[in-house]
Design a protein that fits this description.
Length: 328
């Protein structure tokens, strides 16, 4: 816990504080809020199981470290205000942890439920009004899909959220265009014999600022992103090379061999591992957000917690994926 605070405080004082207007001194410093926001994402190996539990634990057992700990509502308000800073911390950790041997990224989507199917049947309204019904993971759910890119080093380099019913290709279109500094939803051009015009979705997609900077790396993806027209479009528009198994019986692409499919699956394993960790260790499905901005802030904190754990394990000589017991 101390190491996390020292790292964040040093970074904040060097990179963020000089850019911000001088504000009245707060009871809890910005660095302390960021630190507790990150630590509060752990759900295993710690004596709390929620952000509310973290606040109570700090108030009861860590007064010596955080003598001016805030109440839950005030703490969450401060954490939401620091969402943009959390995204900058995300990018700093990625830059710090990227090695010279990294040459590709893995991209995929994972469900982020807003509420249960039972709640959807019982209640006419919910806090997250932009949530929709979609399919993913183990079946139907109400909420959003999180599209994230994971580098060869195992770091989450950027992410984007979209309503659950939106096709994965449109989320990647939003992600790639935002990385190039011009977020948009433009489908591939129609060509003779290649289907109809792709119609952009009218639903929630965001936040644009969390996608991370553009890199000249190819993206390894699953079948949800395939299609030659889309691949040509992404390359022509954003210089993004998306590698995926072609559709069955595709007329314009040769079928892949079993060995080629096995190679792609093995290289893509990193994104599935990252999603499993976000769900198991950081409670991705149990965010308890009551607004989109609150959901953005929590997702940014979870990504930072994940990336920080990867880097800290490296420094300590531990297996990179040993995250559950890192701060036990």
């Amino acid at each position: 816990m101390t190491e996390v605070y020292v790292f964040i405080d040093d970074w904040y004082k060097a990179e963020i504080a000089p850019q911000r207007e001088r504000e009245p001194e707060q009871q809890l410093s910005e660095s302390e809020v960021l630190t507790l926001s990150v630590l509060g994402q752990w759900r295993v190996g710690v004596p709390w199981r929620s952000e509310r539990g973290l606040v109570r634990y700090v108030q009861s057992h860590l007064r010596g470290l955080f003598p001016h700990m805030l109440g839950r509502s005030r703490f969450n308000e401060r954490a939401r205000r620091l969402y943009g800073v959390m995204v900058q911390l995300q990018e700093h950790l990625v830059a710090l942890g990227t090695t010279a041997t990294a040459v590709f990224e893995r991209v995929d989507c994972v469900p982020v439920p807003a509420y249960s199917n039972g709640q959807a049947l019982r209640e006419k309204a919910h806090w997250l009004t932009t949530a929709t019904r979609g399919k993913g993971g183990y079946g139907w759910f109400h909420g959003y899909h999180l599209l994230a890119s994971v580098s060869q080093d195992g770091l989450i380099t950027g992410w984007l959220l979209g309503a659950a019913h939106i096709n994965d290709r449109w989320l990647l279109e939003a992600f790639l265009s935002a990385r190039r500094g011009r977020p948009q939803l433009v489908g591939p051009a129609i060509t003779p014999g290649c289907g109809s015009v792709a119609t952009p979705p009218v639903a929630h997609i965001g936040p644009w600022e969390a996608v991370g900077p553009a890199r000249e790396w190819p993206f390894l993806a699953d079948k949800g992103f395939n299609g030659r027209r889309w691949q040509w479009h992404w390359w022509d528009s954003y210089l993004a090379w998306v590698i995926t198994v072609p559709p069955q019986r595709a007329q314009d692409q040769p079928a892949w061999s079993r060995a080629e499919k096995k190679w792609l699956a093995s290289k893509r394993q990193g994104v599935e591992t990252a999603f499993a960790t976000l769900q198991r260790v950081f409670g991705l499905a149990d965010h308890l957000a009551h607004s989109m901005f609150g959901l953005y802030a929590r997702l940014a904190a979870k990504v930072v917690a994940y990336n920080f754990a990867i880097l800290l394990n490296r420094r300590l000589g531990r297996p990179q994926g040993s995250i559950e017991t890192l701060i036990a």
